[in-house]
Each structure stands twice: as structure tokens, then as C-alpha cells.
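I would love for you to help me understand the pair of lines that follows before we discuss the fold together.
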Amino acid sequence: LTALAANHRHHVMLIQRIPTQISHANTPPLRHRRPTTADRENSISVHNFDRHKNRNANTRNTKSTMKFSAALLALAGSASAFAPAPSAKKSTSLAFSVDTIPGALAPVGLFDPLGFAEKADEATLKRYREAELTHGRVSMLAVLGFLVGEKVEGSSFLFDAQVSGPAITHLSQVPPVFWALLTIAIGAAEQKRATIGWVEPENVPVDKPGLLRDEYVPGDLGFDPLGLKPDDPEEFFTMQTKELQNGRLAMLAAAGFLAQELVDGKGIIEHLQA
């Protein structure tokens, strides 16, 4: 019985080894087998699938990155709306100050007994200078008008030579049409001056009325028909001082003319000829 059992196990083991041996005998080694057309097609399909899969993954990554960047930009823009605005650094020195403005001559220097200029900031000081120049120019014209008007009275072609007497009475003798023309001319000149020198009212802070433009030089309206304005800054500074000095003298002269004619009712030319 023992011999029969051993013989049976030997036959079983032989039967189990037969398929494996047949399989190895019928199948050539892989390293010697040439790839078929089907193998190549399967390889190409697998490669295309992997490439398409990688492309889709890259596309998803790119879209995700773009969405993340857009979210960061939106967040930054929202945050900047609530961020404090950068404050401009204020200069400690004024470009237009009592130490640099024209019109100060030795030995008096800047004549300001009431201290208006020392208490004013740059914008206010520019308005003071603009007002001084304007009054000086009007006074120069007024002095010229006093002398010429009285000199030609009774012989002028204007108003049929009917205007006579001291110059302070001339305006009351002209017809109403002259008043209308004079008002229109003055209004046009002031409108032009305001457009050149002043900031638009809608752009002016409430606490800074009458604000002049930063680049505007007081009195420089661009009116120079004779081309007398020099290009050299030092020469221009000297010419500004001369105009200021003449305007100041004219303001004193016009005030003296008015007072003199009001006192005795005689014209300035009549006084000079007496």
C-alpha cells in the first residue's frame, strides 16, 4: 500500500508539470519575439491616452492657477480700496516766500509793517502779490488817464469835446453807452485773468477759496505784445521788481490825484500850470 501511494503521488506531480512545460515549449522567449502590428497599435494607443491625460491635467492646473491669480488680484484690489492714500511729502521751504518774491529792495527789504506776508502761507502770499500787481496796473492806467483826459479836454474828437473839468468828474459826463462798453471790457478782461490764474471753483477745497494754480506766476497773463519779457530768469525777476515799484508809485499818485481834486475842485494839469 505504501508503494502504491508513493507511485500515485509521483504520477500526480508529473501531470501537474505537463501544462507548464507545454506552455514554455510553445511560447518563444519574449526577448526573441518580434513585435506585431497589434502590439505597435496598442503601444501607440496607450501613448496617446497618456499624452491626452497629461494634457488634460496640465489644462486643469493652468485653469486652477489662473483662477487663483484672479482671486488674488480681486482681493488685492478690494484691499487697496480701504488702504489709506499715500500722503504727499510736504516741503519745508516755500517756492514763493517772503525771501524769494520780487519787489524787495535794499535797504528796506520787504515792506510789511503789519506782518501780513509773514503770517501767510504760499497760496495766500501769491494772492496778495496778484492783488498788488492788479491794483498797481490799474493805478498806472488811472494816472495816465488823469493826465491825458485833462490835457485834451475841449479838443478831443470823443463825445463832441463836451467833457471838461477835473478828471474825477469826467465819468459822470459820458453817455450810458460808454458805461456799457466799459463794463463789458472790464468783465472780459477779468474773466480771462480768472481762467488763466485761478483753479476752477468745482476743484477748489471749501477752506481754500480763490486758490491760484500751482504753475501760475502772479501777474504773468501772457500779455506781451511788444515782446519785452526776457527769457533769462534773473532779468525777468528784475523786470517784475520794476513793475511792482512803478505800480506802487502809481497807487500813491492816483490816491493823491483823487484827494487833491476833491479838496479844491481843480484838475491836476491846472495845478501843474499854476
